[in-house]
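#struct-help
A.M.: can someone run this one for me? Single chain, 183 residues.
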Amino acid sequence: MPLPLLSLKESQLKIGIFYFIVRHNLIIFTPVMKKLLLLAGVIILSSCTNNSGEDKIGTDDVTNSASANGKVNTNLPEMTFEEEVFDFGMLTQGETVSHDFTFTNTGKTNLVISGASGSCGCTVPKWPKEPIAPGAKAKINVVFNSESKRGIQEKTITIVTNCEPATRIIRIKCDVIVAETAK
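D.P.: on it. Structure tokens below:
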């Protein structure tokens, strides 16, 4: 049974066992509701942790080459690519192609790639998320979609690492031809 109006501008709304006071189209929470909302918020925030027990990237993997005292850290990872530019040659418009850029960590500590991005949405890189040990090889896969492209295309992929310098750029290129349609 609904509760009667308290006044023309104030009423009570009952949902289940909870009462809300409605004034001027605003809901005013009762003290019990305030406590329940606070408890729900604490539960939600405390469940938003990502502790799986083991972190793949430790603080030793993230280094800075120059410290505040001016000393240069020489024990850094180094990313050495087998090739930094790849040419797909001629493509028909609409083709999707991919290429693996292979690199080696020729440095003295673990190499961590924190991100990679293409110069446009048609170029999508996928990189290893775990640290690459010194001497180990890994690959960055780059997918290029030639949909709505024509002519010579040159795209860059920017890679962010814990190396010095922190960013590296690799490139892909191709010549996209438009297939003629039958008349």
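A.M.: thanks! Residues 3-10 have pLDDT under 50 and may be disordered.
D.P.: also worth noting: The chain has two domains: 10-46, 59-177.
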